[in-house]
Amino acid sequence: MTGMAPRDTDWETRVRTSFARQAFMATLGAEIVALAPGRVELGAAFHPGLTQQHGFFHAGVTSTLADSAAGYAALSLFGAGHGVLTTEFKMNLLNPGRGERMRAVGRVIKPGRTLTVASADVYGVGDFGEVHIATGLFTMIAMPGIED
Amino acid sequence: MTGMAPRDTDWETRVRTSFARQAFMATLGAEIVALAPGRVELGAAFHPGLTQQHGFFHAGVTSTLADSAAGYAALSLFGAGHGVLTTEFKMNLLNPGRGERMRAVGRVIKPGRTLTVASADVYGVGDFGEVHIATGLFTMIAMPGIED
Amino acid sequence: MTGMAPRDTDWETRVRTSFARQAFMATLGAEIVALAPGRVELGAAFHPGLTQQHGFFHAGVTSTLADSAAGYAALSLFGAGHGVLTTEFKMNLLNPGRGERMRAVGRVIKPGRTLTVASADVYGVGDFGEVHIATGLFTMIAMPGIED
Amino acid sequence: MTGMAPRDTDWETRVRTSFARQAFMATLGAEIVALAPGRVELGAAFHPGLTQQHGFFHAGVTSTLADSAAGYAALSLFGAGHGVLTTEFKMNLLNPGRGERMRAVGRVIKPGRTLTVASADVYGVGDFGEVHIATGLFTMIAMPGIED
Description:
The structure is a homotetramer. A six-stranded antiparallel beta sheet of chain A has the order 1-2-4-5-6-3. Chain A has helices spanning 11-21, 23-28, 59-75, and strands spanning 30-36, 39-45, 82-93, 101-110, 115-126, 129-144. In chain A, a hairpin with a 2-residue loop joins β5 (115-126) and β6 (129-144). The first copy, chain A, has a single domain (11-144), classed as Hotdog Thioesterase (Thiol Ester Dehydrase, Chain A, Roll). Chain A is of the alpha+beta class. Chain A is elongated, with a radius of gyration of 15 Å. The two termini of chain A are 24 Å apart. Chains in contact: A-B, A-C, A-D, B-C, B-D, C-D. β3 (82-93) of chain C pairs antiparallel with β3 (82-93) of chain D, so a sheet runs across the interface.
């Protein structure tokens, strides 16, 4: 993370404000666990409304947390007055989505003026310890003139 | 789709039963629109709980619908007594998630005993007509001995 | 492909000139088979220098042809004075790379001023007929001020 | 890499033998730089036959090295009598392929009996130091009964 300097001193407020506007995060019960320039960690507790057919976290929940963690890691490095959109991503689902809660860690790999590449890793946390549920790669685009 | 013959005459019941067990589909308000061997179409109406920070469908909703459409397209071709899990996928988000509803079409590209490759396309539907929101590629794995 | 109108009447010359500059295409023995706005087909004959450990076309050859086909499909729709770079791609390898020759078809899915999304499909052709070796999704970026 | 124990004491010979059979590696001038269970580093020197239209390493060369590095990282953990095939991968190209040589590092993220997930990172090395050219995610499949 060395050298991941924010361009905007107000980056933390902008990330928290945008996150609070993502109503789907509230639907999932997701919250910000930790914030640093170029690194964002989100968490969500298990509940039955988030499951797939075998009772695990649905891969869509895993992917949504990963996407938001990666997206806000990117936004934390954008200049003021730029919004963030995901242009594409890829996820590998490594283990079933077990646990009492999930945590998703987004990290910027390559910041850029237009495109930012980030990774995201999702872990399931329970009495068994921690399991690596998913890893992914994301491309985010900075949209000038869009308030986030 | 020619040649996509189901191995199990009961395929439609198995797909509908498994879909009904995905509680996250109910959370999203998603439903099955059309079913054929190797092709599944899902739909979901817009509501504010599904949005990202600009008021569009969250990319996580788009991806979840795509994942389930592709997964059930794969399951429709599995033999009896095999469950389906997504091992990996990739999405390109082509346009913002606008519309009064989304429809997601999953199609099997290459069926297999262990791995099945499928595509998914998601469209936003509104008074503007239809817009191509996302396209993706998915690898599904058949899990013997797992009830779906 | 309807509606895929080139912005530059000189598009075909630009694609052929750039392709001729890709020395790696000559290393592979690849050539342009067909060109249309938003659609490019490349071909390459099998030779032992292109193989992986089981004697099939190496996945790297498959991917290279797919990448160039998708990239030139994108470039065919760019305005004059813009070069093309691949920003990311994903390939699913559907069947072993068998055949006396491969053909790779790149198609633009969503043209854009900055980013263009394209697909590519690669087929092996031999006395067995034709087999679908690989399918992929690509994001290309238009670089203003770079001669291709 | 802790805990990445090879199942076959003969793993190094099997990796080196299979690599030597990949004729496309010789075409690229690629060689093994370092080997450990679950981690493989390959290198290749720049030469004009490997370039794209702007004179950089072609993305296909980058991807091929990444694919082979990831594939042999996976194979190093397979049991005896199992060959390796790439089922799918995704690459993000972070910087142009500059340098006098490239090095590609493949690492197993999640070993498995059937599927193994690995990452690969490619670096360009020159008098400018080292630049991160690409990062990718790969799924490899273990093929019983196939000699590698």
